[in-house]
Amino acid sequence: MQAGTGRLLIGYGNELRGDDAAGPVLVREAMAWRLPEVECLVTHQLTPELADPISRCREVVFVDATTGEGPGWRAVEPQAGQKALGHACQPEELLALAQALYGRAPQGWLLGLPAVEFGFGEALSAAAQEGLEQGRKMLREKLAGG
User: Which of 111, 121, 123, 127 lies at 20 to 30 Å from 99 by C-alpha?
Assistant: First the structure.
């Protein structure tokens, strides 16, 4: 991906902890859509290494399980963390890191998918499955909107 082109979808969460897998599940589905200029990544957690591909896109969409109401969109702005940068980051920290290291941060969004069950297991709860269905529609609409 050239700098400032395309979109990057990042689905993250622990796929062995119930509803925490919602982000990776949705982004894996999006891979199968084969949309032009859309790159998809699935990861266990957000790490500093993601700043490079983030810096090269015009828009990044983080997809994650959340315990609040959902599904829903939230704008993500670059913001350096209060702690020293460790192995795991927040979306805001990754945008700030992309800006600091590569001189640019794309427009950022977080699609939060509802999650209620985080026990060991690979099955999604009924609430997460319903949220995933709604989130799928929301993501498709966003990607179709340019």
Answer: 111
